[in-house]
Amino acid sequence: MAVDVLVPTLGESITEATLGSWLKQPGEAVKADEPIASLETDKVAVDVPSPVDGVMGQQAVGEGDTVQVGAVIAQIDAGKTPSTAATPAVEDRTAVGKAEAAAPAEPASAPLDGQGSGQPVSLSPAVRRAVLEHHVDPSKIRGTGKDGRLTKEDVLAAARSEQARPAPVPAPAPVQARVTGDRKEERVRMTRLRQTIATRLKEAQNNAAILTTFNDVDMTAVMEARNKYKDLFEKKHGVRLGFMGFFVKAACMALRDVPGVNASIEGDEIVYRDYADISVAVSAPNGLVVPVIRDADKLSVAGIEKAIGDFGARAKDGTLKMEEMKGGTFTISNGGVFGSLLSTPIINPPQSAVLGLHRIEERPVVRDGQIVARPMMYLALSYDHRLIDGREAVTFVVSLKNAIEDPTRLLIDL
To answer: Where in the chain is the domain with CATH 4.10.320.10?
Structure first.
């Protein structure tokens, strides 16, 4: 018995996804709940599990196709094994190959009996005529007739659907190389995640009045504290002590002092919050993701470090959940881990500010009238000037700077 594989519910307001890759091919054995396909949504990759034990059957869509929630993307031959299941895809390719060899002058006749997904399609004369007239692929149309057979109405509906789609933009013709040697180009379709990142960043620039204020911070005290306690910290809490724990804790204190940085604009209203959900930018294989540390203002440095470590590991594995990347009130992005000296980060709507951290390097500074070398880091706060005034932005950065340069403030809540 063939069991349909449906696109699962992907989260609130998400109605479609892109089929990133098939993890199983027709004829391969599958187990119940075993991933058979990977879907790319606006935020994360989602595995589609097999509903039953059996053999992978017909695949209704190809890699890179857009699919709707609830749509059928494949079928599983329940209860079968590879030795007992039919392998229509192999048989179909053989049949098509024989047909092409026997009748090369009529290449359009073979596809009507089983092109595309590998399932032979039996067509009545009326349906065959409609297929040829409207230039549609019968193997990609779901039949509504008896035993799943195609009807003329199915073909006409598919043709109307194809006409409603925007015509693909043709790729530009390759330019003849004018120089010797190897000069190669590769065109790769943007992933849904990368498309979403591009759209949201451009929207932020178009909608918000973004301004960036800078400062630098002396990391001496935090580095000494980290070096002194990192072994005991890891032994007790099971996680390494990094710098992000200090910065998140300091940011939560500064957000309390300057609540406008933690607010957002909704229509003609300003929404102020008495909690801090800190979004932490994490690098993943397919792009930047921003999971949220909920109620970060109530966590200890150890709790913050545990959350960040967990997010980083699961971002690399692609197992972050969509709900874990929603609802942040303020973002911290650390480009310093990649060597960035200075940047102007872009806010993450509907948030109103983002803090950019950068690499630590020794620079000459004046202390007590003497020029000394200190480990310094540049801080950059980009903010929406519609909501946050320059005085508030600078006050926030200075408050954070003071807490990092004197970590005792984090303990006594100053």
So the answer is: 88-163
Sign, CA dihedral 220-222-223-227, equals positive
pLDDT digits (tens, 9 = 90+) for 101-158: 444 444 433 344 444 444 445 566 667 767 777 777 777 787 777 667 778 778 888 8
d(CA 166, CA 200): 23
Question: What digits encode the pLDDT tens for the residues 7-54?
Answer: 887 766 677 788 878 888 888 888 888 888 888 776 667 788 888 888
Q: What is the pLDDT of residue 59?
A: 86
Parts of the chain belonging to CATH 2.40.50.100: 2-78
Span(s) in the chain for CATH 3.30.559.10: 193-412
A 10 A CB-CB count for 341 gives: 11
**CATH for 88-163, options being 2.30.40.10, 4.10.320.10, 3.40.50.720, 2.40.240.20:** 4.10.320.10
Is the pTM for the entire model greater than 0.70?
no
Class of domain 2-78: mainly beta
Query: Superfamily assignment of 193-412 in CATH?
Result: Chloramphenicol acetyltransferase-like domain (3.30.559.10)
Q: Pick the catalytic residue from 113, 137, 237, 385.
A: 385
Residue 330 has pLDDT above 90, yes or no: yes
Say which of 33, 257, 295, 389 is annotated catalytic.
Answer: 389
Q: Could you confirm whether 134 is annotated as catalytic?
A: no
- Residue 385 annotated to the active site: yes
CA 290 – CA 251 distance, rounded (Å): 17
| Integer Cα distance of 322 and 325 in angstroms | 6
